Amino acid sequence: MATISQNEGANMQQIDLMKLNIQQLSQLKNQLDSELQIFQDSLATLKMAKGKFAASKESLEQFKEGFEEKTTLIPLTGSMYVPGRIKDIDNVIVDIGTGYYVEKDRDSAKDYFKRKVDFVGEQIEKIEILGYEKSQIRDAICEVISVKLQQMKGQLPQES
User: Fold this and answer.
1) Which residues of 105-123 are buried (b: 16+ CB within 10 A; e: fewer)?
2) Can you tell me whether residue 64 is helix, strand or coil?
3) Using CA atoms, how far apart are residues 133 and 73, in angstroms rounded to an integer?
4) Largest Cα–Cα separation, the chain
5) Distance CA 109, CA 88 (A)
6) Among 2-11, 48-57, 144-153, whose mean pLDDT is lowest?
7) Average pLDDT of the chain?
8) What is the tens place of the pLDDT at every residue in 55-68?
9) I want to staple 120 with a disulfide (CB 3.0 to 4.6 A). Which of 21, 50, 52, 86 is the partner?
């Protein structure tokens, strides 16, 4: 018997796919397709964010004694940089999101970026698990649609 179960908090919802008609199954499949697309988009965004946090942490690890007064390029936007000088390698300004910046010492900033990388990695894993479960359900729905189409094809009168 083809059934799908879905946890909704404390409630458990179970659907027997064989009791649904082809139109209902198609609607369910389309809904799952759109959810899977959202998951894919979210994963891409999270992976990009994780990469940026990791790159920021890596950049901090490149700071060495003697970098004071060195000239470097400072990013103003994603594609525009201006020349600038490093005044203090022990304290940095960290963009914590939505236009807020915090001054941190280098070790605290590295720790912040490490925690962000870990957190985003955990979220990626959760979404990948959900995506896998949704794709399994989608595959089951496709199989049931195929079986129902075969049954309908078998019930059609044969022309001689």
Assistant:
1) eeeebbebbeebbeebeee
2) coil
3) 45
4) 92
5) 14
6) 2-11
7) 87
8) 999 988 888 877 78
9) 50
Stated length of the chain: 160
Residue 152: pLDDT band (50, 70, 90) is confident
Residues 100-145: pLDDT tens digits? 999 999 999 999 999 999 999 999 999 999 999 999 999 999 999 9
Q: Comparing C-alpha atoms, which of 105, 145, 110, 134 is closest to residue 2?
A: 145
Residue 155 carries which side chain, given as an amino acid letter? Q
Tokens found for residue 137? 């359900």
In sequence order, the β-bridge partners of residue 2 are: none
Pairwise CA distance, residues 153 & 146, whole Å: 10
Beta bridge partners, 71, equal 85
The structure tokens listed for 153 are: 């094809």
CA distance 138 to 147: 14
Encoded tokens for 4: 């799908």
The structure tokens listed for 18 are 């064989």
Model confidence over 82-106: pLDDT tens digits?
998 888 888 999 999 898 999 999 9
